Amino acid sequence: MGLSTHVLDTMHGCPAAGMAVELYATQGAQATLVKKLVLNADGRTPGGPLYNDGELGAGTYRLVFEVAAYFKSRGVTLPQPNFLDRVALDFGVADVAQHYHVPLLVSPWSYSTYRGS
Predict the structure, then answer these.
(1) 13 Rama class: left (phi>0) / alpha (psi -120 to 50) / beta
(2) What pLDDT score was predicted for residue 54?
(3) Domains in the chain, please, with CATH?
(4) How far apart are CA 41 and CA 57, in angstroms?
(5) What is the CA 106 to chain-centroid distance, rounded?
(6) Largest CA distance in the chain
(7) What is the pLDDT of residues 46-69, one digit of tens each?
(8) Which of 8, 10, 16, 24 could cross-link 31 (Cys pair, CB 3.0–4.6 Å)?
(9) pLDDT of res. 117
């Protein structure tokens, strides 16, 4: 049914507006860039889901979130090297009849994800 993501900044208690995200289709060690985007004011992808109904295929994917760049843009002083720079989430899509939502809760020092609805 599709693929979506949503990022919440747990340091500031708000959506991660302006965070850059990349979506890749993966096959083993190979990763093919599908889309690059910047999250909107709600911390979601502009223009709707990453894949709409009928577009998402079974297989493996990777979402890469530019965490350090986002927090630096918010004026957060980060140590060098950053504890978290880019967060890459590899996941699989087994049933294309279902919707896959991949949220990220993130701070400069931690993150959590799960399969949402």
Answers:
(1) left
(2) 87
(3) 2-113 (2.60.40.180)
(4) 28
(5) 10
(6) 44
(7) 999 999 888 999 999 999 999 999
(8) 24
(9) 83
Here the tokens at position 3 are 């693929």
Per-residue model confidence (pLDDT) at position 57: 95
78 vs 68: CA distance, rounded Å = 8
Q: Give the residue ranges of the chain where pLDDT is below 50.
A: none
Nearest-angstrom CA–CA distance, 89 and 26: 11
Quote the tokens at residue 96. Answer: 């294309």
Residue type for position 56: L
Please report the pLDDT score of residue 25 as a whole number.
Answer: 98
Strand partners, 6: 44, 103
